[in-house]
Amino acid sequence: MKAAGIPFQLIDVDVEENHPPDMEVEDIPEFLARKKATAAIPLVDKDSLVLAADSVVILNNLIYGKPANADEAKEMIAALAGKHHLVITGVFIGNHSKGIGFSDFTSVWLDEMSPEEISYYVDNFPPLDKAGAYGIQDWIGWAKVSRIEGSYANVMGLPVHKVYKELVQWE
Question: Stretch 94-121: mean pLDDT, rounded?
Fold first, then answer.
């Protein structure tokens, strides 16, 4: 956001990242972003906007969120390696009187990875705060992501181009 010239202030809210069990996987990120924004809006003044986002990695209709530990991170990366997967980031922008939600979709192709490469990544680029246990801006993105279709920023966790467009149109 800073690089796009959008001033912001971080607000920490404690929200359980759960969703209805029958919800379509494509709808979950926007649902979670809305949930986070709804918790944050009462904490800001009436002239402020809240922006919340949530990203998930999807492979074979299964969600790969943030790993609980290094072993789970290794399992996630091993499952994704050599395959094409989808990154969806849901965004919600709102204030005390209105809001808008949307999602962005990016396809990512991750090359095969040896167990040694996976261990190297997890040991040197802590992935526990990243959906799918990887960051495209880290070693894995430079060495193992062979192709993406869609927004690079979306894979990092926020489709800044779409956020900017919505903020310019905000009334």
Answer: 97
